[in-house]
Amino acid sequence: MTDLRRVLRPLLAALALCVLAAPAAAAERQIILAHAQRQDPANDPAAAMADAFKRAVEAATGGTLAVEIFPDGQLGGNRDMAGLVERGVIHSAIVTVGGVAPVYPPIAVAQIPFVIDSPEAAYAVFDGPFGRRLAEEIGRRTTLHVLGFGDAGGFFVLTNATRPIRGPEDLKGLKIRTIPGFAVLDTMIRGLGGTPVRVSSRDEFTALAAGIVDGQMNSVPVIVARRYDEVQRHVTLTNHSYAPYVWVIGKAVLAGLSAEERTVVERAARAAIEAGRATARRIEASDRGLPALERRMQVHVPTAGQRRAFQAAAQPMVTDYIAATFGAEGVSLMEAFFAAAKEAP
What we know:
The protein has 345 residues and is of the alpha/beta class. It is built from 13 helices and eleven strands.
C-alpha cells in the first residue's frame, strides 16, 4: 500500500492541478482541501474540520463554491501538502506543525515542551494574540494564509515498548521517533536522555513493530487510531506539548475570491475548527481515547515532581536551540509564547 500511494500521489496532485486550471466558465469552482487522516468525521478531528468546512461553504454559496476533500495522505504527507499549497498546486491543507516547519522553521517555538497545561489554555494561546502573530509571521514569510489552528487530538504523550518511563533517566538508551526535518523535537529527546530517530509518519508503525525505534510521541487518540498500542507496551502521560493542526490556504486563492466568498471561507473555517475541537475532546474521553489505552497498555501518570524533572531536562535545551537557530525572531516569538501561556486560563 505504501508503494502504491507513492506512485499515486504525484498523479493525484496533477489531477488537483487540472481541477484548479479548469475554465472559469465552469458551473462551479472548487477549493481543494487535503489532510492526512481518514475522512471519518465522527472519529477524527481533521476529518470533522474538513467535513464541517465543506458543508458550511457549499451551503453559504449555494454550491457555486464547492470543496473537494483529498484525505488519508492521498496528496502526500504533511510536509508534502504544505508544500503543494505553498506552490499553488492545491488550495488548502490541514497539516501538522511539523508540516509547516520546512516553509516556516520558527514555528518550532510552538513545540517548546511543558509550557501549556490544559486544552482550554491551548485554545486561548492559539486563538489569541500569540496565534494571530504566528499566523501573520507565516503569511509574511510564505505564500500561505493561516485560517486557524485546530485540535489534533490533545496533548502529546510518550510511549515505548521497553520499560516504564517515570523520569528522564528512564529514557537513556531508548530510540524515540521524531519528525524528519523538525530538529526541535530531536533536541527535546536528547534533553530527556533518549536518542532521536527520524521516521516519516507513513513508516512509523512499521518502524515501531520492527524495533527500529523503541518509542514515539503522539496524542492519545492518534495512538489508538493508528494501533500503536499493538506494538507499544508502556505509555507515560507526560502531556508535554500541544501540537495543533495548522490550517493553511494559498493567499492567491483568497485573492481570487470575492469579498463575500472570503468572508464565507473565514467563517466556515472558524466554525469547522470548533467542530474539530469538540470531536477531539469527545474522542479523548471515549473508548477511542485514554480508556482504551488503560485497558491495553501500562499507563503511568507522572507526579508533580516527575513532571518538573522532565521539564528541567528538556525545556532549557529546546529554548537554547531556538535562540541559537532563529536569533531575535525566535526569542521574540518564544517570549510571546510563554507570556500567552502564562495569561491563559
